[in-house]
Specification:
The complex is a heterodimer.
Chain A: H1 6-10, H2 12-44, H3 49-63, H4 67-82, H5 88-114, H6 117-125, H7 130-160, H8 172-183, H9 186-215
Helix pairs in contact in A: 2-3, 2-5, 2-8, 3-5, 4-5, 5-7, 6-7, 7-9, 8-9
Chain B: E1 4-15, E2 18-29, E3 33-37, H1 44-51, E4 59-64, E5 67-68, H2 73-81, E6 83-86, H3 98-109, H4 114-127, H5 143-155, E7 161-165, H6 173-188, E8 192-196, H7 200-206, E9 209-214, E10 217-222, H8 224-229, H9 234-242
Parallel strand pairs in B: 3-8, 3-9, 6-7, 7-8
Antiparallel strand pairs in B: 1-2, 1-4, 4-5, 9-10
Helix pairs in contact in B: 3-4, 3-5, 4-5, 5-6
Classes of the chains: A mainly alpha, B alpha/beta.
């Protein structure tokens, strides 16, 4: 077998651009899905049957559908039924945000539930409202406690952004596949793609470990 | 002694089938230290939690300076601001320093400026002899130190009455004294206090009035001298001797 690794270098600019889009998708999705998850968790725990039911339905819908199906649905069905036509990147962001928000919602719910009731009582006893007790006392602790879970969600998300390649978003996977089909250098391009994903993912995982040690709760 | 601060009128509370309070009536006068004693599960803590609305009554009434406790959230919050509460497990906020814990109420509830709140918090930490621990996190404080911070945190709201729910039950024996000393000083300053406790020496020396609970009801109440030296009820005597009280 012959390898021609030069194909990687001649297309380095495109791969870099694809990588930028991958990072962009992951970062923006998380920026939407963290507040999204918190809102879902608060609605779920609100005590209102309607709000809690709406949150649970949303979560169970998007957590139990394959992400690739949600991406296709956002691409083909959203413009038809809701009359919303977005660019491929924006469509990909919608699908990823729906999916990751649902996961984060469950994560935050578990985190909030893990904070012992006495903490909320202490906040209420100071005269705080329920919302202040949540915002000042319970949520900050819950977020620290679920950092490891959020981190592993982040690492999954970073790789799952590759699925939006199916709607022609020019992120890393799409770009690598396109170069592959133009040059027929399958093994080289797959290796390059693997190397880039891994090289980006590994330091993130380490960074998260470090964050965890620094900001984890000691009781 | 001046007026009546708190009146309990046939207070009842159930948790499912379990009757936690079966009609409790008593009063707390301004400036008084009232100690609630009795076996575990006899309703002392529940009465305290009903007092500041952490539990809702199932019957009867609690009056604060003659006014029945409000049941709406806003009214309840206003009442809680006038009552400081100290918990068995301290319940300091672990993500905040000792200083920030004490500032929590003034900043979030009273909307004091950070400067004013910090000034107040530092004065209170000094009062509980913890000036040097202002920047420590709860995890780095001993149980006794944590409980003193918790007392300072409650005092930061400048309450009219302090509720102590077994404040020394979770402490190592060697740190119990420092917490009781802070409470004793508070009592000497004239703070109205309700203290649920198993520390009989504290009740004997500091309380103005002692209430003995059993099975959700008051078995006996009176001055410490009467309760500890000449209890009327056989069961009070049994309870005290279980705790090793020799009189």
């Amino acid at each position: 077998m012959n390898f021609d690794w030069s194909v990687v270098w001649t297309h380095a600019g495109e791969l870099l651009q694809g990588t930028e889009i991958t990072v962009f998708l992951a970062v923006v999705t998380m920026m939407i899905a963290i507040p999204g998850g918190i809102v879902l968790a608060l609605l779920r725990l609100s005590g209102s049957r309607i709000l809690s039911g709406a949150s649970a339905s949303f979560t169970e819908l998007f957590r139990n559908l394959p992400l690739i199906l949600v991406i296709y649905a956002a691409y083909y069905i959203m413009p038809l039924t809701l009359n919303i036509a977005l660019s491929p990147i924006a469509t990909g962001l919608v699908a990823l945000s729906l999916n990751v928000s649902a996961y984060n919602g469950e994560t935050f719910r578990a985190g909030i539930a893990s904070i012992r009731k006495g903490q909320g009582d202490a906040a209420l006893a100071l005269g705080m409202s329920r919302w202040q007790a949540m915002r000042e006392v319970v949520l900050p602790q819950a977020v620290r406690r679920v950092l490891p879970v959020l981190a592993s969600t982040w690492v999954s998300l970073f790789k799952d952004t590759s699925l939006v390649s199916v709607i022609a978003v020019g992120e890393l996977a799409y770009t690598a596949m396109r170069i592959r089909s133009q040059t027929f250098r399958v093994l080289e391009m797959l290796t390059a793609m693997a190397a880039i994903y891994w090289a980006l993912g590994y330091p993130q995982a380490k960074l998260v470990d470090w964050l965890n040690r620094k900001y984890g709760i000691n009781e | 002694m001046t007026g009546v601060m708190l009146e309990y009128d046939n207070v009842q509370k159930r948790f499912g089938e379990f009757v936690a309070l079966a009609g409790v009536s008593m009063e707390v006068r301004t400036g008084q230290v009232v100690c609630l004693i009795g076996p575990s599960g006899s309703g002392k803590s529940t009465l305290l939690r009903c007092t500041n609305g952490l539990e809702m009554l199932d019957g009867g009434e609690i009056r604060l300076e003659g006014q029945p406790l409000p049941r709406d959230p806003r009214g309840m919050r206003a009442v809680r601001q006038r009552m400081g509460m100290v918990f068995q497990n301290f319940e300091l906020f672990p993500h905040r320093t000792a200083l920030a814990n004490v500032m929590s109420g003034p900043v979030t509830v009273l909307r004091l400026s950070r400067t004013a709140a910090e000034q107040r918090a530092r004065a209170l930490l000094e009062k509980v002899d913890l000036s040097d621990k202002a920047m420590s996190y709860p995890a780095n404080l001993s149980g006794g130190q944590q409980q003193r911070v918790a007392i300072a945190r409650a005092l930061a709201m400048e309450p009219n009455i302090m509720l102590f729910d077994e404040p020394t039950s979770a402490l190592d024996p060697e740190t119990i004294g420092e917490v009781l000393n802070v409470m004793k000083r508070l009592a000497e300053e004239g703070m109205t206090m309700i203290v649920v406790t198993h520390e009989m020496n504290f009740a004997r020396r500091v309380a103005d009035h002692v209430v003995v609970f059993e099975r959700g009801a008051i078995m006996e109440q009176g001055s410490p001298v009467q309760i500890f030296d000449a209890p009327l009820m056989e069961r009070t005597r049994d309870f005290l001797s279980h705790l090793g009280w020799e009189g």
